[in-house]
Write a structure and sequence with these properties.
Layout (H helix, E strand, L loop, with lengths): L1 H12 L7 E14 L12 E11 L4 E15 L6 H6 L2 E16 L12 E19 L5 E22 L4 E12 L27 E13 L9
Antiparallel strand pairs: 1-2, 1-8, 2-3, 3-4, 4-5, 5-6, 6-7, 7-8
Length: 229
């Protein structure tokens, strides 16, 4: 997986910086989980999330973007509005590492080489890879490690607003839901086939999680000659 990260980073930075403009920076915010354990609030950060982000601006309207974000995901049935979950009383906490790559589209032109403060809403989507440890719940409701980990594919759906705050810095606020092609993040479906009878919840509905936060990026590169792509 570290080779994948190196390839993604090299794709962003091997081009001639005199012909394009780049952004590198940080993400900081919170996360919340939506699945078979805990509350089902769509936007309710309860764990810290932080990471790094890089962009390659191909035009004033779109950019290639990669990010790496670390966080914990937590679910507590006692905080749910569902009385059945409250009675069950399950809870979990697991650490995740997300690698994401895709394209960001702005609603309006966002040319950082023109003078003045400018801002625009934007959308981002692509693909995510999320690494998580595997757990399951015993018949007594104990959250138990399987001593293995897995990668879950997903689709990010991000809405944000960004503005330059100086010549070289861009500040953005965004909310991004991640739909994963996995139902294992909360332990409701064990990874080992031998533990399949311990599965519970809606096994036809996969797990979601949401990152809410801000990004601060530093821009560099001379005025670009944008291509048609």
């Amino acid at each position: 997986m570290r080779y994948l990260i190196l390839i993604l980073i090299s794709m962003c930075f091997t081009q001639n910086t005199s012909a394009q403009i780049y952004e590198v920076g940080i993400f900081a915010g919170g996360s919340n989980f939506i699945g078979d354990v805990g509350a089902t609030d769509y936007i309710s950060p309860n764990q810290a999330a932080f990471g790094a982000i890089a962009k390659w601006n191909r035009s004033p309207r779109h950019s290639f973007r990669v990010s790496v974000i670390f966080s914990d995901l937590e679910g507590i049935d006692g905080k749910s509005d569902d009385p059945r979950r409250k009675q069950r009383g399950y809870s979990f906490n697991t650490s995740i590492l997300e690698i994401s790559a895709g394209m960001e589209f702005t609603f309006w032109d966002f040319d950082l080489h023109t003078s003045g403060i400018k801002g625009t809403p934007y959308l981002y989507s692509g693909i995510t890879l999320t690494n998580h440890d595997n757990y399951f719940f015993t018949t007594a409701g104990e959250y138990t490690s399987e001593n293995t980990s897995s990668w879950a594919y997903g689709i990010p759906m991000v809405l944000g607003y960004k503005s330059n705050i100086s010549t070289h810095f861009v500040l953005a606020a965004e909310i991004g839901a991640r739909y994963t092609f996995s139902d294992e993040l909360d332990g409701s479906v064990p990874d080992a086939e031998s533990r399949e009878p311990l599965s519970f919840g809606n096994t036809n509905s996969n797990d979601w999680y949401v990152f809410s936060g801000i990004t601060l990026t530093y821009t560099f590169g001379r005025r670009p000659c944008y291509c048609n792509f």
